[in-house]
Amino acid sequence: MKGPADLGGAHGFGPVRPDADNEKFHAPWERQAFAVTVAMGAAGFWTLDGSRFARETLPHTQYYTLGYYGIWLAALERLIADAGIYDGQPEPKRVLTKDDVRTAMAKGGPTDRDGPPPRFPIGARVRVDPQNPPTHTRAPAYVRGAVGTIVRHHGAHVFPDTNAHGGGENPAPLYTVRFAAADLWGPHTTAAAVHADLFEPYLSAA
Amino acid sequence: MSSNHSPAHGHAHDDGEDHHHGHDHDHSHLSDMDIRVRALQSLLEAKGYIDPNALDELIQLYEHEVGPQNGARVVAKAWTDPAYAERLFADATTAIAELGYTGRQGEHMVALKNTPDTHNMVVCTLCSCYPWPVLGLPPTWYKSAPYRAKAVADPRGVLADFGVSLPDETYIEVYDSTAEVRYLVVPMRPDGTEGWDEAALANLVTRDAMIGTGLPALPTSP
Does domain A112-205 match CATH 3.40.640.10? Predict the structure, then answer.
């Protein structure tokens, strides 16, 4: 999709404002929104990709005004509703307990999987296929249609475009693709190159 | 929410969309959000989906323990131990795990080496991907629209917003964390730190230097 979250290269947001403090949270409710979201991830009603889709499909007006943890909270409310938790009692995969927290966080959720070998070698030129699906994708709009160079293999990883929508993990080769910044932005850039991590189904030989 | 949020990423407006509760007292956004999260948390606790003690533990861990001091240790070790640096740039996930930093939002790590020719900057244009085990939770600006919009096209403009200027001939390479790979920038070791030990060096390694929006602190004394 190309929703309010897909911000690369957009104008009109003003300068970056470095934080005046190092506070992680700026109100008590932000702490709780963070912790409830992370804890509910363990229940297994949705995937990480599904939770990203819930955030990026918020209305633009909300996405740009709710603040970061406001986005998390609004998305969590949707995910809870979609899981049937308001009206019913679906069975969680597990309930994160205090004793589990450190072990679970130190383990994380690796997304590398056995999967097909990469089709494109290091140094290959690839084009990001033009696309504008209404569903979840991790090919940002600013690289779609652009030609870049494969610079790193990451093995096969869970494919977010299907995993976000209950379509399974479908592991796909993941690459770091290097784009000359001028190929993305013409003369309007101060970068030399921009790299994006892109899945093989997004790419064709160029 | 504090006043240092940028206009593009700050308070919700009273546009009616966010106010479902109909309360007629202090109608502030803050209390509205507070009520919403409390309602959700109460429901999930009552139904047995979350353990309040686990929430406290998560907050303790990520608000007070995991932070950029971890990444600073990785960088300082890479500065002083060439064999470690080699392992870090070959397989960052494993090299970082040697120091005990693993897990959520750092499952697949890559270390980026700044050189006299090349400066690296990391962003997540699509959301807020950030290497939690080494840097902790991201600062507000990292998650905000201005940074996510600007970093991939105008990294020098971003550096200027941080008061940092690099030579015109320096290549600025941006990494957009669009999948589950997380990046740690390894800045150049500052001149004037010959003979310093790891702990003293780690004190120079700022969070922003490991994102690429800043440089290490200037050495004064070890």
Answer: no
The shortest C-alpha distance from A140 to chain B (Å) reads: 7
List the one residue out of B177, B168, B159 whose CA is nearest residue B215. Answer: B159
User: Is pTM, for the whole model, over 0.95?
Assistant: no
Mutate to test the interface with B, among A13, A143, A200 (most CBs of B within 10 A): A13
Q: Is B4 in contact with A184 (Cβ distance < 8 A)?
A: no
Does the model's ipTM exceed the 0.90 cut? yes
B16 touches chain A (CB under 8 A): no
User: What digits encode the pLDDT tens for the residues B121-158?
Assistant: 999 999 999 999 999 999 999 999 999 999 999 999 99
Nearest to residue A142, comparing CAs of A88, A179, A110, A174?
A179
Fold of B67-211: Nitrile Hydratase; Chain A (3.90.330)
* Range(s) within chain A of domains with CATH label 2.30.30.50: 112-205
Residue A113: Cβ-neighbour burial (10 angstroms; 0-12, 13-18, 19+):
middle
Q: So where are chain B's domains?
A: 28-65, 67-211
